[in-house]
Amino acid sequence: MEKGKYGEHRVLQPSNGCLPQAAWKIDNTPEILSNEILIDADILNITSTAFNALKRRNNGDKERIKAEILAIVAERGKFQCPDTGSGGMLVGRIEKIGEDLLGKVDLVEGETIATMVSLTLTPLFLQEITEIDVDTDQVFVKGKAILFESGIYAKMSPHLSKALCLAAMDVAGAPGWTAKYVHAGDKVVVIGTGKAGLLCLHEAKKRAGNTGLVIAIDSSEAQCQLVRDAGVADHVLCMNAQDNLAVMREVDRLTNGTLADFVVNTVNTDSTEMSSILSCKDHGKALFFSMSTVFSKVALGCEGVGKEMTLLVGTGYTKGHAEIVYQILLENDVIRSYFERVYGG
Amino acid sequence: MEKGKYGEHRVLQPSNGCLPQAAWKIDNTPEILSNEILIDADILNITSTAFNALKRRNNGDKERIKAEILAIVAERGKFQCPDTGSGGMLVGRIEKIGEDLLGKVDLVEGETIATMVSLTLTPLFLQEITEIDVDTDQVFVKGKAILFESGIYAKMSPHLSKALCLAAMDVAGAPGWTAKYVHAGDKVVVIGTGKAGLLCLHEAKKRAGNTGLVIAIDSSEAQCQLVRDAGVADHVLCMNAQDNLAVMREVDRLTNGTLADFVVNTVNTDSTEMSSILSCKDHGKALFFSMSTVFSKVALGCEGVGKEMTLLVGTGYTKGHAEIVYQILLENDVIRSYFERVYGG
């Protein structure tokens, strides 16, 4: 097969022309074609979904977890949890840039990057697993990985620790898109104030500005207090976002009946879709980040209440998202301290 | 409970304040509050999903199907298939408009409308089922229904038969949104050329105009021929939309490598999400109409190929969608004949 920008040339099984993510087995030969980048892999950041499955299957035994990861990668040429289908990302140094990409990518050999595409589509060749940190789901390795022409990556910030950069990047899509969708004077609702939600709030407050209005919603009083301390919302509602009608009534009250121009939902529990829709004005925009979002609940729910809205599927990537999230951590001491406390400084 | 625009005052079970669609039982008393509209119900257009389940449970026996529909509505105050959760819509005459809505809705008493909100949230009181048409999934009734303040509806076209209006309205959201998203000169891909896809194609061709480019994709040669006869595409690709990479290559070729500005997906089979994403250019828009769309496949798939796109959830309603779809049927003889042939003239 001709070499493709999506790495389709590395698919080994099935043979009917799928992409690497959908493939069962990909070619992990650690030698690059002219449109690929070779990475000296350092850390695998396994998703918590996949890492919990690994721990469960191996009773938390580090050596058994190591052995299973090595077996998966040897069999499939990539890391993908057999139970959940989930992967993660990796950190490493640029070892070699294919000749077709020289001058087209803003990378130099030796530079440290994190891949922003999933491990489930990244060719990976492991020589050894040196250590596993079961608290942070990080797997330290010796090995090589391949980044395709379409592969996205982020550089580390020179002003922040590697651990902080990684934790921030993991949710950088949400504040990145928020930065692009929020305009001066907008009324914004952020549902969920965890890692992603806090970053969205900071960005919403900054972009909507003093003529805008930002409302944060979370069921945890501790998270609500964090939002207040961080100074990133005009109003903080401590309530369950599954209580769709109550959320609507509160947002209606705080916006004097206009409802929000833009609503971003970052809650990882079910049945919060309608809180986004009911909080948003007609012709407003609602952005969904949670993987627990159900497509038909959004589509049919919006139709059921007779609203005309722009309903957006959020993705983990938008151009400049890493730079946006690093800037937030430099600007907001409370949010940075929170990330350092939870994810290590 | 105070009367609400979404009919929340009619929810009987559960009692914790959900919306009528999520409710188990709603109050179907056929007397309106001042912010409601009473409809003399005539035809229930059950979704094919729900009607197939009714037929299966009752071995296709009309009398048993009738009895089950009456039992469901008596128990729950609305029609909702117990297996699939699916409903439908209804046709009837405006009997009475609540005083709060007089002058606010463009309706007069006696006028025939179709409700555009689901039967799963519409209070329904049935006196009798007079007939069932098992070919068109239509249930002829004597009864009353309630339209809430937020409820949307469409009028019949004076130029088209009622059957045609109903069949068209069922999928009117797709061409309605297509009309709004396609601009002069756009390159458009429509995946799936069934009822919704054909209407989208006509609209795409009209809005993109002679400086645009419209590509239709369907695996059925008969549907492809219909597209050619209707004159609504510049290129027709007869291929399986699950073959994501092949779709990308063909669209790439036909657009001279630029890919599409806008892709609308109307295919009701799984694993076609990536065909939309791969056919669309960076910063383009992809609109998903199929209820078989999987949220995480869209979000993670787009991220996996490193694209920045506007990913839109399509809904069955957008302002003016009925007028747009009636106009298509008046403008395009081939599409109108197809609808008449399949859904009755």
Summarize the structure in short.
The first copy, chain A, has helices spanning 48-57, 62-76, 162-169, 173-181, 195-208, 221-230, 244-254, 273-279, 295-304, 321-331, 333-343; strands spanning 11-13, 25-26, 37-46, 88-97, 112-115, 124-133, 138-147, 153-155, 187-191, 213-218, 235-238, 260-265, 280-288, 310-313. By secondary structure, chain A is α/β, with parallel strands linked by helices.
What do these coordinates show?
The structure is a homodimer of 345-residue chains. Chain A is an alpha/beta fold. In chain A, 34% of the residues lie in helices and 25% in strands. Chain A is built from eleven helices and 14 strands. Chain A has helices spanning 48-57, 62-76, 162-169, 173-181, 195-208, 221-230, 244-254, 273-279, 295-304, 321-331, 333-343, and strands at 11-13, 25-26, 37-46, 88-97, 112-115, 124-133, 138-147, 153-155, 187-191, 213-218, 235-238, 260-265, 280-288, 310-313. Chain A has a six-stranded antiparallel β-sheet with strand order 6-7-3-4-5-8. Chain A has a six-stranded parallel β-sheet with strand order 11-10-9-12-13-14, with helices on both faces. In chain A, strands 1-2 form a two-stranded antiparallel sheet. The model of chain A has no long low-confidence stretch (mean pLDDT 94). The interface between A and B is large, with 52 and 52 residues.
